[in-house]
Design a protein that fits this description.
- By secondary structure, this protein is of the alpha+beta class.
- It has one domain: Roll (T-fold).
- The protein has helices at 38-62, 70-76, 86-101, 111-116, 139-142, 159-176, 266-290; strands at 16-24, 27-35, 81-83, 143-146, 149-152, 182-186, 189-193, 202-205, 215-218, 221-227, 232-235, 238-241, 256-263, 294-299, 304-307.
- Strands 1-2-6-7-10-13-14-15 form an eight-stranded antiparallel sheet, with helices on one face.
- α1 packs antiparallel against α6 and α6 (159-176) packs across α7.
- The chain starts with 15 loop residues before the first strand and ends with a strand.
Length: 311
């Protein structure tokens, strides 16, 4: 259990937490703010409502399952330059970065493969075609950016890093509102600031670990979790999952149950977690070590392996 629960000496008075859970991005979003007075409680409730509105506003930009989202609009008009919001432009640039860093394993073009094996998007009905390996061009040939415009040769999906990006936006909003102790958790992708109401670091379980008590304790850090546990199904009698390797789109590895990455920004962790799962145990651990990534791997049996984890 890395990152011990160290109690902060600043928490002398009794603290309370204001907690809210709402549905966005296809899952539950949990927000907790630690408060020290009734006046702060009221202010926290107002700010959590604003966080809820922020998630829903950004969802209308990135959601691949919403035919009215900006991403869906861009995906319907391929081969032409289109105006794009700062949110889309930012994540497109980050996608190009993660693509280069990972040697092409991070690739937002795999949306077509997902559709074909039954993971339906907003723009198409699931075709459920035969599994076959599809070859992609290098991403810079299909995704181009020029000032405030963007060019898609193929359909793109940035939702893999959009979740972390929105969490970071929400965390920045709370910091600007002078909150020092809060926690935003979106199904294993999270950002933790300061301490919880007991003065301890925030706890997040490690998905897929055999020992259910395995957890990380974080403060002023983001966490992203990627894995094959929750989203897997059968296609043409073959076990498949939602993590597509663009190097071999017809092969689905179950060597790694999950990878949790800790970084100062949640989006930065998001851009690496999926890549480490797809790389597998040996290459993933080597990549994490080379890039000095703090990561926790759970293999097919739930055995835990660490990379650059302190404590």
């Amino acid at each position: 259990m890395p990152y011990p629960k160290i109690i902060s000496p600043d928490f002398q008075m009794k603290r309370k937490s204001v907690k809210s859970t709402f549905f966005a991005l296809g899952t539950e979003v949990e927000t907790i703010i630690v408060v020290a007075s009734k006046k702060e409680q009221a202010r926290a409730r107002v700010d959590i409502r604003k966080i809820k509105n922020l998630f829903r506003k950004k969802q209308r930009v990135f959601c691949r399952f919403n035919p009215e989202s900006e991403l869906s609009r861009l995906n319907k008009n391929l081969g032409v330059w289109q105006e794009a919001s700062p949110d889309i432009l930012y994540l497109a640039k980050r996608a190009l970065f993660y693509h280069q860093e990972s040697g092409g394993i991070y690739d937002p073009q795999v949306i077509d493969v997902l559709d074909n094996i039954g993971y339906k998007s907003a723009e198409t009905k699931a075709k459920k075609t035969e599994l076959k390996s599809e070859r992609f061009k290098k991403l810079p040939a299909d995704l181009r950016i020029e000032q405030n415009k963007i060019f898609f040769s193929r359909r793109m999906d940035f939702t893999g890093i959009a979740k972390g990006y929105i969490i970071d936006q929400a965390a920045e909003f709370l910091r600007k509102r002078s909150w020092k102790n809060f926690f935003i958790n979106v199904n294993g992708d999270a950002y933790a600031a300061g301490r919880n109401k007991k003065g301890e670091k925030w706890k997040l379980p490690v998905e897929g670990a055999t020992d259910k008590e395995t957890a990380v304790y974080i403060s002023n850090e983001g966490v992203a979790t990627s894995g094959v546990i929750k989203k897997q199904w059968k296609h043409k009698g073959k076990n498949v999952h939602h993590l597509i390797n663009p190097k071999n789109t017809g092969k689905f590895s179950f060597e790694i149950r999950s990878v949790l990455v800790i970084h100062k920004k949640t989006e930065w962790a998001d851009g690496r977690a999926k890549v480490l799962v797809l790389m597998g145990k040996k290459k993933g651990l080597a990549f994490a070590k080379k890039k000095k990534l703090q990561a926790i791997f759970a293999d097919r049996r739930g055995k835990i392996m660490f990379s650059n984890i302190q404590g």
